[in-house]
Specification:
11 strands
């Protein structure tokens, strides 16, 4: 099982980035998908997710209107389009997959996003 994130980097405030998570080794459509982020000294926090099997999406208040989550059940990818980035969006971003009917879940290794002021 693998979740591999890509697309992180350094971007000025107001800029955009798209993070991508490529999945393999499990039945992608059986899992809900999410993006979390973590800064040093703080707990990992949910940024955005597909809330259920009906593709309902959730966004943390801090990113709502700026970030968009999407998934491709053919390519086995989940993306996070991030617009109008702010310095407080600086964090390591993690992809997460959880099986709908169990506690089975997987994490990616994380990708660093740095937003300069």
């Amino acid at each position: 099982v693998q979740l591999v994130e890509s697309g992180g980097g350094l971007v000025p405030a107001g800029g955009s980035l798209t993070l991508s998570c490529s999945a393999s080794g499990f039945t992608f459509v059986d899992y809900t998908l999410a993006w979390f982020r973590q800064v040093p000294g703080k707990e990992r926090a949910l940024v955005s997710a597909f809330a259920g099997s009906d593709s309902t999406t959730y966004y943390a208040p801090a990113v709502k209107g700026r970030f968009t989550i999407s998934r491709d059940n053919v390519k086995y990818t989940v993306d996070l389009q991030m617009n109008n980035l702010k310095p407080e969006d600086t964090a390591v971003y993690y992809c997460h997959a959880k099986q709908y009917w169990s506690r089975r879940n997987y994490w990616g290794q994380g990708t660093l996003v740095t937003v300069s002021s």
